[in-house]
Input
Amino acid sequence: MKLEGMKPNSSTFAGVVNSCAIIVALEEGRHANQQIIQSGYESNVNVQNSLIDMYANCSSMEDAWRVFNKMASHDVVSWNIMILGHLKHGQHQKALQLFPQMQQEGMKPPNTFIWVLNACASEVALEEGRCAHEQIIQSGFESDVFVGSSLINMYTKCVSMEDAL
Output
């Protein structure tokens, strides 16, 4: 692309960074990050979210946080990537701690709760699941069918049949 004199745009950079995330290519992702900065796309939300995802997938949560903290504002995607990144690395408490912060910014997507509950179920993390359940109740999502199914699944896998019922 460069050899033909074409300049990459935000979509190009997001695609390159997403590819680095998929193949867990941290060094290539860092190189792309430098090119993003040089090209002036470092404040593009889609590019930032792609960078956060790439760093999280490449086990570099410190870099993910660096990009996240530089963002002027966060969207649902930004928060979900951070939460999923911590879940992927077994940091359930950190992921659960992000819920109140996310909610303070006015975001309460039920799919985020579903991911946390599924992670708790797969890790058999009953206490973390109960914490998530409390936050679900506080957020008003306890009647969501998908959230309810995830709660039942989590409690069942954590062998807490009374809570599942």
Remarks:
- The radius of gyration is 18 Å.
- The chain has a mean pLDDT of 89.
- The chain has two domains: 1-72, 75-165.
